[in-house]
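Table S7 (text form). Paired inputs.
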Amino acid sequence: MLFFKTFIFNFIMNNIEYRALFGLISILFLRVFGLFMLLPVLTIHGIEIHYATNKLVGIAVGIYGLIQSIFQIPFSFLSDKYGYKKFIIIGLIIFVIGNLIACYKNSIWNIIIGRAIQGLGAITSPSMALLSDLLDEKNRMKSLGFMGIVFGAGFSISMFLGPFIVNLFGIQSLFIIASFLGFLSILIAIFIVPCPNKHILNRDVSIVKTGIYKIFFNLNLFRLNFSIFCLHIILMFNFITFPILLNNFGFLKSNYWKLYFFMVIISFICSVPVIIYLESKRHTKIFFKITIVMLFVAEILLYFSINNFILSLLSMQLFFIFFNIKEFLLPFLLSYFAPIGYRGTAIGIFSTYQFFGSFLGSFFSGIILNNFNLKIVFFISCILIFFWFLLILHMKEPIFFTNIRFVLSKNVLNSKSFINFLINQPGIIEVLFFKKENTIHFKIDDKIINKISLKKIIINYLK
């Protein structure tokens, strides 16, 4: 905690904000690590578990995504109503129970049931909403972005550490470790994460019922939702097939973690400069298409590399590099395409597509491998990417505006002259207010006006 406080945001946060950010990102990291370190392991060692078939291994990998996609939005609504911290703790208890069931017997059915139970505790949205309640507006967006970095770090570390642990202690040790991490997260939630004094609905992180229809039928958002859906189908296709491909070349299972480690490091080194460039230059439309083309190239190469070990490794590396870039690019675009006041709803639906894609990819790869060979999986990936590219072919470049929210009194929000005054200010593109929440949302051109100057304009008007 002291290290964190010294080196992260030392000059802008009070003690409650430090506790909130440290506690919630620790919970997120431990949970993500506990969940995903099983992912490469099941695809490597899953067939060795009692009663396992390729089909059941696919279900065991993906069942978490199916349950999460079903319960994410209801869990978010309930946490909005009854309290974020309570539901984070409930979600973590569910996570621990799922792990204990999975490690009870060395049976694929126990793992399937345990993974399904884990999916019930969808705590990502409540965690983001609680962080939003506990942090000052000036720290909020940077902290939410930091949570995204932690999520990616947890996933990347679990990729190679999971197989390493299994080589030493066996597959059931992962569930025991994940249970311990879940219990540790519960203690962090109880004793470190503060309780908010009051809850103000933040539409940037919360799902709003009235916005679901609006988001579902937004063409630009549908393109992004379908993109994350396809991306995670292909990710699961590859996770299931890569170990089989390596095994066919006689690659030792005890060395898989080393291979994944180097691939993660190389992917990080190659993708970070591209991500920095995209964030600064914002040439997203062309890069969006390039990444899809490169994923197609990776799958084509995998199709033809069945008998070529070096080409297989290069193809796998190519996939991981452009998967990382795509995984950054999609949420980045989502934040700009989301309608003002409904960003949280857009994120919730986006995540639902993502989890459901993970389930379908795992489920169908197991079925395909039960009846066909590896090449069919890569061939289907190519077809899917082709239709994906057709869908986004006419996607427009997003307009890079910034969304800002202020909490004001009802008397101010009822003033038509005040709203008209704001709309006519240079740099303000759109204004939307919600009287029940006492909030006003702006879409602004930050090259003309920023949050500080907008706040001064509002204060001067209200004097």
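Next pair, protein 2 of 2.
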Amino acid sequence: AGIVKYHNIRSVVNRDGDIVVLNRNGEIVVADERGREKERYPVVPGARIKVKDEGKVTLGKLLVEWDPFTTPILTEVSGTVVFRDIVDGVTIREEFDEVTGLSRRVIIEDQEGKLQPRVSIKAPGVGDTPDAVAESIGETRGRYMLPVGAHLLVPDGSEVHQGDIISKIPRETTKTKDITGGLPRVAELFEARKPKEQAVITEIDGAVEFAGFVKGMRKIVIRADDGETKEYLIPRGKHISVHEGDRVKAGEALMDGSPNPHDYLAVLGDRELQRYLVNEVQEVYRLQGVTINDKHIEIIVRQMLRRVRIEEVGGTEFVVGELVDKFVFQDENEKAIAAGKPAATAKPVLLGITKASLSTDSFISAASFQETTRVLTEAAISGKTDDLRGLKENVIVGRLIPAGTGLGHYTRAEVLSQGADEAPVAVEEPPVDDAIDSDPGSEEIAQAG
């Protein structure tokens, strides 16, 4: 129980008296009588809110309802519908739905690319005849672009009320929803590939402005409070998920699709990218009810973000554009600062797991994965040395792997020889763990000389 508060919600009351949400990123907050927040629920555009702002609610009360299978395009104003660039057989066609037995009008792509199907809402006309009404229709109150695949729900010349649904965009429900359908998405994320349906994301916080068309693409301007502006071009036929005047934050998508992880890294930094990748991978498994601890995915993501690209060398021996390990970069910077030289600067780089594996410091580990000939050839040409610090390279050469609680103790063990004819004597500290001590394979003894 508590008091409902609307947060960042822009809404209208439709003809049925329901409160309809118009914008994204809105939330309903439930607070106690002292104003302390207890719960927070996100709401989507087109959702119908069943409680009023500052209203009291009890446990189990319905707050919001919405259609999970479609994304609606709603009108914010009342008026008369006027079609623009909606031509039968060119930008719209009639389709028969075998499931419902009903026909529907679906927006299709204009082959020539000149038409931009849209619905304008104009001030209603007056008159005794249809022609008189049509001639007296007034100024444009609202304009809504229709993306390819949208289902048009209103006829030309009809009257609409604010909050009415003009069109619906069906969500992708026909795709395979089992784990085999989700695994390509996991591979796409771990390989840091550019998504097939890539979304444009904003680089700054600000308000959305539409600035017409450029070469057939919709131009969106994001204007920050300090006057800074960024322009983005949205390809035709794509659904723009923001409206004029909406407030957006850096990293938000302006259209449907998945953001490019490299863009996400450039805009929001490595910490936010790590959260995004972990959450996106978990989404695939959550859909199947599979529970995986975040730490397993975080280990992989950490390796993907281990490298940085040098921008300024400062007083170090790096080369501009060189990819180096984060820890090596930090060590070299500390040495440069200690010597009174300027530090180098770098930007984090996202590598797919294949590329990250091939760029490891150990050439034995890299050669065991892919492109064996190339890796070994480059290692030979550059005279590389493998310190055998990782697991894979030690397994390959048959050494004890650097893992376990007794690692530190046995690393410090020394072997001395008292003479050519006498047996070698191992000088070492008492074992740390009885289990390690009793394991004959846990101790490596080599004879000097």
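The first strand starts at residue 2 and ends at 7.
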